[in-house]
Amino acid sequence: MIHSVLHAIGVFFGHLAAVEWKWLAIGILAQLGKLVAVSRAWCNIVRAAYPQERIRWRTLFGAYVAGTGVNAIVPARGGDVVRLFLAKRRIEHATYTTLVSTSLLQTLFDMVVAGCFVVWALTQHVLPGIDVLKSPSLPALDYGWAFRHPAIGLILFGLLLIFGTLLVAWIAERVEEFKAKVAQGFAAFADRTYYFTRVVPWQVLDWALRLTTVFFFLRAFGLPATLENALLVQVSQSLATILPVSPAGIGTEQALLVYIFRNVTTKSLALSFSVGMRVTLIVVNAIVGFTAILLMTGTLRIRRQAEADRAGAEPAR
User: Fold this and answer.
1) How many other CB atoms are found less than 10 A from the CB of residue 63?
2) d(CA 160, CA 144)
3) Which of 31, 94, 97, 309 could form a disulfide with 181 if both were Cys (CB 3.0 to 4.6 A apart)?
4) DSSP code at position 127
5) Contact 266, 273 (CB under 8 A)
6) Contact, 210 vs 281, CB < 8 A?
7) Rg, Å, the chain Cα set
8) Three-state DSSP state, 264
9) More confident residue, 167 or 136
10) pLDDT digit string (tens) for 68-80?
11) What is the model's pLDDT at position 202?
12) Higher pLDDT among residues 134 and 116, named by residue
């Protein structure tokens, strides 16, 4: 996979001179607007969970973009831990159980929307079938080996499912007030009026800005900028995050998009666009995210900050 990604990056730099920078800039602005919208949605979910606390949007915006920045360069969603840590240390009486539940509520909406897009893509017959996934023709597909070795893949999936079930059962049995804390995180959804007026509009705007970002990146790289193509790119991005074993899903996303765009453009241009968009967003998210970490903690060493918080001491600068 690393070889395929490096090759794709080389292809991107080969097409760099053809990029239209004005459309690229608009795409970046749309991405920044998306971060504002999604953090607004999360902030309102957290406010419903802690109605007695004074929760500032700028605090949760900082925590959210910090997590996004870390996720841009660290695989396996490590940024989510950073986001929850920063939010908890700024909200009095907050617990990780409740904060995780607020994130889960936010994710459920995203899963429904992404699922609808994937179903639409399936009806268009643009996604690779099992025979393609099993083929080494998609060498950058992170989880393609599971289709090439179905027995091992099923065993690992079963073990993960059993482990997850046992973990949930262990937590539910041993953590006092676990269910109450989870319910607290879903307080926004319990109040339907609040949820559909204070949370859903921001999440709808988030998805609209995602597609807007893709649309202008398509224009920047000289590909047909249509709603259908923007949706196809979004589908490839959503599928790439199912198993985030690489930073920002890079590699998997490129393999999927090359296949999905096989009738839209050449493999070279598809790779150039996909890598160019991903690298640009990684850089933007990382810059904004690590700036937020520095402003909120005074250091980029989050682990040292966490250890200092546990010890009740100021971290070494």
Assistant:
1) 28
2) 18
3) 97
4) S
5) no
6) no
7) 21
8) coil
9) 167
10) 999 888 876 778 8
11) 98
12) 116
Task: Please state, in angstroms and as integers, the Cα–Cα distance from residue 242 to each residue in 43, 55, 57, 135, 237, following that order.
Answer: 25, 31, 29, 20, 9
Give me the pLDDT at residue 141, please: 46
Question: Is residue 221 within 8 Å of 273, Cβ to Cβ?
Answer: yes
DSSP assigned state of 18 = G
- What pLDDT does 196 receive? 96
CA 115 to chain centre: 15
**Between 257 and 55, where is the model more confident?**
55
Cβ–Cβ < 8 Å for 213, 34 = yes
User: Distance between CA atoms of 138 and 252, rounded to whole angstroms?
Assistant: 9
Query: Contact at 8 Å (CB) between 255 and 208?
Result: no
Q: For the chain, what is the mean pLDDT?
A: 81
Residue with tokens 């010890």, as numbered in its chain: 311
The answer to whether the beta carbons of residues 31 and 281 sit under 8 Å apart is yes
- For residue 3, the SS3 value is helix
